[in-house]
Amino acid sequence: MNIVIIGAGLAGANAAQELRAQGHAGDITLVGTEPHPPYERPPLSKGLLLGTADPDSVFAHATSWYADHEVQLVTGSTVTDIDLDTCHVAIGDRLLSYDRLLLATGAHPRRLPGADASGAEVTYLRTLDDALALAPRLTEHLLVVGAGWIGLEVAAAARQAGGTVTVVENASAPLLGVLGPELAPVLADLHRDHGVDLRLGTAITAIERSGGRTTVRLDDGTDVHPDLVVVGIGAEPDDSLAVKAGLATDHGVLVDATLRADDPHVYAAGDVAQHDHPLLGRLRVEHWDTAIHQGRHAARAMLGNDEPYLRQPYFFTDQYDLGLEYVGHVGPSGYDEVVVRGDVDERRFTALWIHGDRVVAGMHVNDWATTDLLRALVGREADARVRDTAVALGDLGG
Ligand SMILES: Cc1cc2nc3c(=O)[nH]c(=O)nc-3n(C[C@H](O)[C@H](O)[C@H](O)COP(=O)(O)OP(=O)(O)OC[C@H]3O[C@@H](n4cnc5c(N)ncnc54)[C@H](O)[C@@H]3O)c2cc1C
User: Which of 17, 41, 241 most suits a substitution to test ligand 1, by most atoms within 8 Å of the C-beta?
Assistant: First the structure.
């Protein structure tokens, strides 16, 4: 069986690895637009910016791994078309046939309207090359647009490098949608304590460049004059190829519980997949862990395994001396209660988000020993002991 994987990112690399691990002996071709072999993106906004990670350490596999495992890695090449009827993909004039096709095309940064044409220096952070270009600029004055994960990690790296950082965020707190009003202030305080000028509930009205100076006008009536504008306002799934091919999409490639698209030969995994999660409903997750595990799951599915993908989303971040892990998913219907154990002011605690009678998400801040406990609690019934902060997290197992 001949398998083509479009997108040489983390999902694609893990799919190729799992195909060989499962004993697949047929052809595997992994095609990627970027000039690099597949790499991990989390270090791009952390260790690579801070200078604590070597650029060579970010790659998913050693360079020799692809040849050693007879995986044909085609970098610097973009798949331009998929023909679902004849089971071919096109890379320009070159046609590749497939028996199974995996779409692992990921996502690209959402553009800030008016920014790119403003003449100001504006950058986005998605690729290794973006990170390598940004790293030497961190000692300058950065205006970070968006207090999401990537924006905050860039802010932290820049402050640690000695740069001046202004963060502009529309919402009244960073990551309000994920952390809620109870815990989002933890990150606001963290960044203010480290000297970030955090402008919450604030929007950009204009970005202008004149006389060699950038002016960013804010709706609070103030102007900021950064050297560089770093935009981190979310990502859009790279589903245009699937749309063009006529696959079912809705802000991502629609896949069933097993990660199969509405064509029996086609699967999707990672940032581009709109997954029908049996426990959580329709969900597209932009997390490192999901790219790895969906990539592997899709590989097994392409080989005939029809188990659903059930794993809960998982995310981590590191900012200054704060490390955080988050497991689970608060759906559109929200949560009723957050149960916090530990000391929020000291930034060492756990939190459980409860909806109805279930724990829907769990998080720790600087309490790394709790990761497995949180994983075990997510999805579980939120009984009186779970809600009782006098009962230690470690005692909830039984
Ligand atoms: C700066 C940064 C920091 C992050 N930090 C964290 C973190 O701390 N924790 C966490 O959980 N997650 C983090 N993430 C998210 C995580 O990295 C992504 O969820 C993950 O990389 C998604 O993997 P993927 O393989 O689905 O897509 P991608 O990594 O986007 O890979 C897709 C690849 O497909 C290629 N491609 C697209 N279209 C085509 C085509 N037509 N032909 C050929 N190739 C194509 C793209 O160029 C790309 O290289 C971070 C992301 C970024 C950008």
Answer: 41
